Amino acid sequence: MRHPMFSGVLGIVLGEAIAARSLTLLAWFALFALFVAVMVSRVEEPRLARRFGNDYARYRDNVPRWLPRLLSWHASRPSGTD
């Protein structure tokens, strides 16, 4: 996945909300998830695209944003051969 730290933090907060049966934590999870989704798509990823150009575009096209791939992807192999 392209954003493992954000996914990890979101998973932890969601797990805490479920374990504690807390609507407050669930609301915090929803607010934080919304903020992260907007910030990543509007700030972080465009910045990475400008900095790394076609390499980032290829990476972005082959690696999911939030959830891990079932099969690994290797940049040295052509797309679709894993």
TrEMBL record:
Pfam family, one: PEMT
Main location as per UniProt: membrane
Transmembrane segments: 20-41
InterPro entries: Phopholipid_MeTrfase (IPR007318)
Domain of life per record: Bacteria
Keyword Membrane: yes
Listed name of the protein: Methyltransferase
Species for this entry: Pseudonocardia tropica
